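[stage:ingest] chain + small molecule (flavin-adenine dinucleotide)
[stage:ingest] validated
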Amino acid sequence: MYDVAIVGAGITGSALAFFLTRSGQRVLLLDAVGIAAGGSGAAGAFVSPKIAKEGELKALSEEAFLFALEFYASHFPHLTRFAPLLHVSTDPAQNDKIEHFREHTALKTCALSSEAQSLLSQRPALASVMLERSALVDAAQVCRAMAEGADFVVHEVKTLTCKPTHCLLDHFEAKKVVLCIGAYRPILELPYVSLRGIWGHRIDITTTTRLPYHLHQYLSVAATFEGRSAIGATHDVHYHPQYSFEPYDIEAGRLELLRKAAQSVTLEHVDVLRDYTGLRSGSNDYLPLLGPLVDAEATRLSLPGLRSGRRYDRAQYCYYPNLSLFNGVGGYGFVLGPYLAQQMARHLAEGMALPSMLDPTRFFERWVRRR
Ligand SMILES: Cc1cc2nc3c(=O)[nH]c(=O)nc-3n(C[C@H](O)[C@H](O)[C@H](O)COP(=O)(O)OP(=O)(O)OC[C@H]3O[C@@H](n4cnc5c(N)ncnc54)[C@H](O)[C@@H]3O)c2cc1C
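[stage:predict] done
[stage:export] tokens:
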């Protein structure tokens, strides 16, 4: 029997497989379509922090960003491209946020290069910050490389039963299961978990314009691998590949990408090489969900006081045995993924506690209060 079965082979599932197999666990990695077939295969995949004033996500993303830079550099240097990051405000009303970030961040900032200065001289009213170091990775290849130590099977999990001794995923057995299925149709009815799918489109191009840094403004523009550059990505909360009736309009998406990129930088002699599309998975409070899952129905039956608003300790809730969730990394999968995967792997293998602010139980409690 496997120690851990992971459902979903995007960045979250593949990074988790990486850390678990390295700690000697026997891992089964299942994906309905293939490794990096979901949102992860579409990603740019920029490794950059959240540029914000304050907040839990900002703090988490900075910590995870530093971890990820080190992680990709030491394990997958050939799949990683490092460059400074130039982040430019989209509107003078946003300047305050960027200036605050620049003045207070513990990350290493640097003076604008001459190229950045000449770009920004056309937009003197906009604030900017330049980080000395950021990265992007080859999204699909990095996921594949991370998954190497696990047994990978293309299989769509339709049924999941979790028992105190082990779990059954259709005909597969494992001691523990982690759901890493992003914003795709859920396997288990979890009425309190609402993850929003945010559809994204990005393109690979060739251009004769030199891109010496990763430029983030209306979207991201950067040189990537083998003479290519990436422009990405769009954000669309209305389209979902599993629920929408109309097909996605790839031409319109491409035009939007080129139009937004042109607002930041003039790209010469552009040829579009390839389109990538996929779903990001975002939570209502923008923080990831990492940890065990409450069985809502069993908990409501065992704690009838919940109905009248009585508060209980989280340990009193009924949890699905041996089941955890790793989801809601939003637009930061390649930043948060390795950092949180390492924590989840240590939790599963050594019983290390997970950060309580990421506990999916917070959504159960909010759901109960609303009802
Ligand atoms: C266009 C675009 C650009 C992006 N750019 C960046 C970026 O620059 N930097 C960054 O950090 N992030 C970026 N992101 C976000 C990043 O891609 C996501 O955060 C990440 O993909 C989430 O990974 P995941 O593992 O949660 O989900 P996914 O990658 O979506 O993986 C979920 C997997 O689960 C599988 N699955 C679902 N249901 C089942 C089932 N029942 N049985 C078996 N398998 C199942 C799916 O096939 C899928 O492969 C971007 C996203 C998009 C769409």
